[in-house]
């Protein structure tokens, strides 16, 4: 998931750099460049000047789309939520009948490597109230979605909350850990998680 995101954002950034006029850049181009910059350089680099330099344009294009850097940060956090949660949930909602969304979600979340964008946003949230509020909101959204999935399968509300929380804590630990497991071991743990998630009440 993180690799696909970086590829998409890199393609959009390259396209933006090749644009002959700054006014051809959209707000989305700036936001996608912001996500790349956040991932690579951290939240301190989310300023008009370094972003404009990376895009190969003047700062005027930035301020055409955003009133100030704070407005850009707000839009950037919304873009992160859309890409890393809302779009994923939308794809899960379109799964063919008979496929288990929780199992598919676990395979996508744990099947790759660490998620550098997730780490970057959560690092930002340690010092910025707006980023912290965005992280708390996205945590609630993800947990709520998983709880709903368990509830639809007949789990009691208490057990649905417990299963969702355990799986989400595991995801956060996996994402934030700086000691990646060998692929074979990671696959074994993933299968155990899927088994635990699908154990009847």
Polypeptide structure, described:
With 201 residues, the protein is an all-alpha fold. The chain is built from ten helices and no strands. Helix 2 (27-41) packs across helix 5, helix 3 crosses helix 4 and helix 5 (69-93) packs parallel to helix 8 (129-152). The two termini are 30 Å apart. The radius of gyration is 19 Å and the shape is elongated. The chain has helices at 2-17, 27-41, 48-55, 59-65, 69-93, 101-110, 116-125, 129-152, 157-176, 183-197. The longest helix is centred in the middle third of the chain and has 25 residues, at 69-93.
Structure summary:
With 201 residues, the chain is mainly alpha-helical. It has helices at 2-17, 27-41, 48-55, 59-65, 69-93, 101-110, 116-125, 129-152, 157-176, 183-197. The two termini are 30 Å apart.
What share of residues is helical?
Answer: over 70%
- Summed up, the helix count is 10
Summarize the main sheet. Answer: none
Please state the oligomeric state of the protein chains shown: single chain
Total beta strand runs: 0
- Sketch the topology as an H/E string, one letter per element: HHHHHHHHHH
Q: Would you tell me the structural class of the helices and strands?
A: mainly alpha
The global form is elongated
The radius of gyration computed from the alpha-carbon positions, rounded to a whole number of angstroms, is 19 Å
Indicate the mean pLDDT. Answer: 87
Quote the distance from N terminus to C terminus: 30 Å
Question: Roughly what fraction of the amino acids lie in strands?
Answer: under 5%
Low-pLDDT sequence parts? 6-20
């Amino acid at each position: 998931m993180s690799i696909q995101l970086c590829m998409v954002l890199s393609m959009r950034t390259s396209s933006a750099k090749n644009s002959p006029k700054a006014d051809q850049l959209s707000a989305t181009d700036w936001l996608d460049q912001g996500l790349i910059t956040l991932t690579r350089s951290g939240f301190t680099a989310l300023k008009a000047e370094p972003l404009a330099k990376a895009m190969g344009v003047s700062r005027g294009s930035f301020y055409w789309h955003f009133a100030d850097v704070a407005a850009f940060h707000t839009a950037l956090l919304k873009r992160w939520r859309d890409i890393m949660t809302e779009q994923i949930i939308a794809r899960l909602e379109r799964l063919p009948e008979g496929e288990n969304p929780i199992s598919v979600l676990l395979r996508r979340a744990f099947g790759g490597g660490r998620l550098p964008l997730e780490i970057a946003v959560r690092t930002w949230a340690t010092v910025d109230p707006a980023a912290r509020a965005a992280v708390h909101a996205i945590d609630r959204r993800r947990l709520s979605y998983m709880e709903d999935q368990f509830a639809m399968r007949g789990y009691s509300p208490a057990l649905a909350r417990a299963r969702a929380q355990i799986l989400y804590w595991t995801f956060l630990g996996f994402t934030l850990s700086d000691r990646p497991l060998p692929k074979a071991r990671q696959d074994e743990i993933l299968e155990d998680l899927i088994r635990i998630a699908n154990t009847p009440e």
